[in-house]
Every structure is written in structure tokens, then in C-alpha cells.
């Protein structure tokens, strides 16, 4: 593995060559000659370290000004032009991007140890309690400990199973809300409905309460923050010119979010936590975190650590699943052929006399293809969360400097014409396996779709994310027929996106719902 040229090397070279005090002039000449020789060697060594190809750079800005409102598309175009691995200079930051399965495998799996860190951005410092969380923390013991807490105490199969009745209740609210709207003959704002479904599911697990009852499904108990707050989103996205604007607003978001978290922790402490053991199914995540010991023998975790984890879970779990659901609904309503195939499958697996249950989801193979196709075309994390190299290395013979920021372009991967045919066609059938076996959503050995990433930083909430997505879609397609509103035809549904940490549809999806089951099933 090649070592990077560092300023320290240069400084060492100079200091090694400095003459000792009171040296004779001839020895000074010898030392100077030696210095020039070594300097020349270092320069040629640096030159010989070939960076990956990339576009020409401006002084100071580098390539920053070449990235516009849709950096994922700009980066994919650069890969078309310069090859599967592209080098960029963003201001004073080295960066690489790729949309190629083999290079992605190299970065996320073979060289996971090198690339599994995160850049310490202002957004990470201000919105994640000084990188005390999981998602934005650089690789190190602190990240490892917080990630282990997530995996061992919050996202275990057993704990997720303990919330199954809460999830069923939220699915019931979802259907009842849409049903009431359908009775009134008004179109349904699917962004609102699906956002509330995800947020309430997550906050019931985390905080023990549904904090965002959607207007049409019950009283609203807004808490003043939303994971899709554009400021939070662009600040997290943090690596494009829009970031500058976001930074100006970050302090306000930071304060609002912190007040909310303090209130939650205070309420949980006041109620004395649950007087039950950790495995008790009534404990929410905050109860669990309050019951865990801290670092270095401390009795409890620090408040900042608890707040950072709550923040991470809300941000990572809600928007990702809501955005995916809205895209899937948009594509399916745009393609009535797909809607009728989904409904045929639901009618045969579930039938017309009951609601879909979580235990049905494994058998809904066509719906699983629909979700996989949605992830291909509209991955919730179009550039993942930026990774950063911990040391210099090489990929395909190219030098990658220390602290290089890595943009894995999952949007470009799903639309890479070298690995997919008809990339702009929404075609779930392409994922159907010849032997009819179960279609996996969260992973795929071929690295052609990567909705939850891979390696050390892969999403620890993938099973929960997949359940939330499948459940909402299965219920909505089983219970209702869907058409575009007011005289629009299916092909009029637009699929323009807005770049952010997650990548929603530019315009909220609005559609007409018509109940398709007998009335008693909804009640
Ligand atoms: C459809 C739903 C979801 C999608 C598409 C999704 C996708 C992702 C992606 C792409 C990453 C970045 C991985 C990387 O940078 O390499 C990520 C990280 C993460 N996700 Fe998810 N996610 C979803 C749901 C969830 C849920 C439900 C939770 C938790 C309750 C969660 C918790 C996290 C955390 C904590 C990280 C940071 C991991 C780390 O940096 O070590 N996600 N997710």
C-alpha cells in the first residue's frame, strides 16, 4: 500500500538536512547539495503517485463550482467522461467518486479499514453533539462503542419484535387516515401520510410516543423538528456549495433539536424510567439508554451521548423510509400494470378479508422486487454518508491521499448503463429470480444496488427499514386502488428529485385512493 506524501515528510527532510551550528563552509555546500537531491527525490516521488483521472481544476475552488444542484448527476457524468474512478479537488479537500460495482467493493469491503471513517464536518460537530453519534463519527473507539450500543441494545431482533404491536397500530392509523380521506373524495398527500407513519413508528420505539400524528389520521403533536428540515438535510449533506447557506442556519437547528432532546430525557427521568428490567418490552430506547452504564466505570451514559443517539435514530430512520415509500408509490401509480400485479399477489397471499401482517411480508416477492427497483432508481442515500480515508492507499494503481473524501454514487450505480439495461424504465421484473426464490432487498453480492451500503459503516437499521417500507406499501396497495388526481394521467406523474442527505421527489406526491376491500375490514 503506497504511503502519501505529507508535509511532515517534507519538514523532516529539511530538518534532517539542516547543518549543525558552526559547520565549516565546505560541509555546508555538501549538506545543501544533499538537501537539493532529497528535495528532488521527494518531488519526483510525489509526481509518480498518479491520482485518478478527473476534470481540470480552478485555483482555490478546485472542482467545487462544477457541482450544481444535483451533484449525484454531475458526479455520474464525470464518471462517464473520465472513467469509473474520478478524482476531484473540492476547495482544499481531496475527493474521489465512483459508480462502479468493483471499485465500490474495493472501497467498502477490501479496503474497509482504510475508508470506513467520516470527515469531521461542521454539520457533524454542530448537529451530532461533536461527532458523539454513530452516523457522523470518525472511525475510532467512540464510534465503535456507540455502534455496539445500537446493535446490542436497540436494534436486536428481539427488541424489534417487541415493537411489533406498535408497528401494527401505526399501520392501522395509516390505513384509517387514508380511508377517511378517500371517503371525503379528496386527494391524499402521500408525503404527509408516509412521513407521519415513519416518524411515529420510530418515535414510539425511541421515545415511547407517536409525536407526529398526521392531520388526517388524528391530532397533531408536532415537536418542532422534522428529519426533512431542509437546513438539517443540506447541512448533513454538507459537501456541496449549498452547504455554506446551511451552516449559517445550523446553530438555530442545533438549539431547537437540543431543547427537544433535553425535554425528552427530562420527562423520562421524571417518570423514573421503567421499573422493569431491560428486556421488558415496555422499555423504549431512551429508557434503555438511561439504564446503560457509561464509559470508564461511570454509572450512566453521558446525556450528550444519549442525545446524539436519539438524533441519529430519528434522522437515519424516518426520512430514509418515508422517502423510499413516496418514490415507490409514485412509480407504481405511474405504472398501473405494476399496481395490478402487486394487488394480484396481495390478493393471493393475504386475501380480501384481513389486513396484511408483518408475517406476510416475506411472501410478497413481487412487492419486494418493486422495492428493490425503487432503490435502484431512487436510493434514499444517493451518495451514502461521505466516507473518508484514514491513510493514503492505492486503488487500481492510482494514489488516493490520506483524508480523501469518498462519494459512493448509489444513484449513478443504479443508472449505470454498463451494468443495467433500460436504466430509466421502472421494471420490477428485472429482479425476479429465475427459480422464484425470495428476493433480498437489503443486500446483493453483486454490488449492483446498495441501498444500505456495505462494510463497517453499513446501515445497522436495514431490517427495520425494510419492514417499515414493505409494511406501508403492502397496506396501501392492498386496501386501496390509486390514481393520479384531477384529470392527470399516470404518465403525468413527475419523477424529478431534489438532492439532499436523502433524495425526495421534488414535488410531494398527491393521489386519489379508492377503497377496494369490504368496509368491515377497515374498521
Ligand atoms: C429504508 C430505510 C433506510 C435506508 C435506505 C438506510 C440507508 C442508510 C445508508 C445508505 C447509510 C450510510 C452507509 C454508509 O455511509 O456507508 C445508513 C447509515 C445508517 N443508518 Fe440507515 N437506512 C435506513 C433505515 C435506518 C433505520 C430504520 C435506522 C435505525 C433505526 C438506521 C440507522 C442508521 C445508522 C445509525 C447509520 C450510520 C452507520 C454508521 O455510520 O456506522 N437506518 N443508512
TrEMBL record:
<dbReference type="InterPro" id="IPR002401">
    <property type="entry name" value="Cyt_P450_E_grp-I"/>
</dbReference>
<dbReference type="Pfam" id="PF00067">
    <property type="entry name" value="p450"/>
</dbReference>
<keyword id="KW-0408">Iron</keyword>
<keyword id="KW-0479">Metal-binding</keyword>
<dbReference type="InterPro" id="IPR036396">
    <property type="entry name" value="Cyt_P450_sf"/>
</dbReference>
<dbReference type="InterPro" id="IPR017972">
    <property type="entry name" value="Cyt_P450_CS"/>
</dbReference>
<keyword id="KW-0560">Oxidoreductase</keyword>
<keyword id="KW-0349">Heme</keyword>
<dbReference type="InterPro" id="IPR001128">
    <property type="entry name" value="Cyt_P450"/>
</dbReference>
<protein>
    <recommendedName>
        <fullName>Cytochrome P450</fullName>
    </recommendedName>
</protein>
<keyword id="KW-0503">Monooxygenase</keyword>
<comment type="similarity">
    <text>Belongs to the cytochrome P450 family.</text>
</comment>
Amino acid at each position: 500500500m503506497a504511503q502519501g506524501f505529507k508535509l511532515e515528510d517534507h519538514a523532516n527532510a529539511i530538518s534532517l538536512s539542516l547543518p549543525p551550528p558552526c559547520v565549516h563552509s565546505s560541509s555546508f555546500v555538501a549538506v545543501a547539495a544533499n538537501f537539493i537531491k532529497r528535495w528532488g527525490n521527494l518531488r519526483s516521488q510525489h509526481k509518480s503517485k498518479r491520482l485518478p483521472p478527473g476534470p481540470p481544476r480552478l485555483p482555490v475552488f478546485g472542482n467545487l463550482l462544477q457541482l450544481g444542484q444535483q451533484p449525484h448527476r454531475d458526479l455520474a457524468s464525470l464518471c462517464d467522461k473520465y472513467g469509473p474512478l474520478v478524482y476531484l479537488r473540492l476547495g482544499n479537500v481531496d475527493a474521489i467518486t465512483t459508480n462502479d460495482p468493483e471499485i465500490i467493493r474495493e472501497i467498502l469491503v477490501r479496503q474497509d479499514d482504510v475508508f470506513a471513517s467520516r470527515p469531521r464536518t461542521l454539520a457533524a460537530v454542530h448537529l451530532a453533539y461533536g461527532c458523539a453519534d454513530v452516523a457522523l463519527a470518525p472511525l475510532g473507539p467512540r464510534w465503535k462503542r456507540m455502534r455496539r450500543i445500537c446493535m446490542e441494545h436497540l436494534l436486536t431482533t428481539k427488541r424489534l419484535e417487541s415493537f411489533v404491536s406498535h408497528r401494527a397500530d401505526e399501520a392501522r392509523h395509516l390505513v384509517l387516515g387514508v380511508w377517511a380521506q378517500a371517503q371525503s373524495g379528496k386527494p391524499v398527500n402521500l408525503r404527509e401520510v408516509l412521513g407521519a407513519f415513519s416518524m411515529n413508528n420510530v418515535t414510539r420505539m425511541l421515545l415511547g410516543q407517536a409525536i407526529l400524528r398526521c392531520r388526517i389520521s388524528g391530532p397533531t403533536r408536532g415537536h418542532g423538528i422534522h428529519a426533512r428540515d431542509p437546513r438539517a438535510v443540506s447541512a448533513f449533506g454538507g459537501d456541496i456549495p449549498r452547504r455554506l447557506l446551511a451552516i449559517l442556519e445550523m446553530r438555530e437547528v442545533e438549539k431547537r433539536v437540543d431543547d427537544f432532546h433535553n425535554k425528552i430525557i427530562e420527562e423520562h427521568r421524571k417518570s423514573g424510567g421503567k421499573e422493569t428490567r431491560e428486556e421488558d418490552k415496555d422499555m423504549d430506547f431512551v429508557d434503555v439508554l438511561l439504564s446503560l452504564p457509561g464509559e470508564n466505570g461511570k454509572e450512566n451514559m453521558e446525556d450528550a451521548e444519549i442525545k446524539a443517539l436519539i438524533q441519529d435514530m430519528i434522522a437515519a430512520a424516518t426520512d430514509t423510509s418515508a422517502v423510499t415509500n413516496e418514490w415507490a408509490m409514485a412509480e407504481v401509480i405511474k405504472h398501473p400494470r405494476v399496481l395490478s400485479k402487486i394487488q394480484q399477489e396481495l390478493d393471493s397471499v393475504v386475501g380480501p378479508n384481513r389486513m396484511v401482517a408483518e408475517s406476510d411480508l416475506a411472501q410478497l416477492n413481487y412487492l419486494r422486487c418493486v422495492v428493490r427497483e425503487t432503490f435502484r432508481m431512487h436510493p434514499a442515500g444517493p451518495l451514502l454518508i461521505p466516507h473518508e480515508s484514514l491513510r493514503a492507499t492505492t486503488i487500481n494503481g492510482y494514489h488516493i491521499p490520506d483524508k480523501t473524501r469518498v462519494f459512493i454514487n448509489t444513484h449513478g450505480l443504479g443508472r449505470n448503463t454498463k451494468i443495467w439495461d433500460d436504466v430509466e424504465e421502472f421494471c420490477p421484473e428485472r429482479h425476479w429470480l429465475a427459480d422464484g426464490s425470495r428476493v433480498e432487498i437489503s443486500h446483493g453480492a453483486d454490488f449492483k444496488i446498495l441501498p444500505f451500503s456495505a462494510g463497517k459503516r453499513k446501515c445497522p437499521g436495514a431490517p427495520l427499514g425494510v419492514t417499515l417500507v414493505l409494511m406501508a406499501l403492502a397496506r396501501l396497495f392492498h386496501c386501496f386502488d390509486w390514481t393520479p388526481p384531477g384529470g392527470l394521467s399516470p404518465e403525468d406523474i413527475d419523477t424529478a428529485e431534489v438532492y439532499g442527505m436523502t433524495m425526495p421527489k421534488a414535488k410531494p406526491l398527491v393521489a386519489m385512493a379508492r377503497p377496494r376491500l369490504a368496509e368491515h375490514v377497515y374498521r
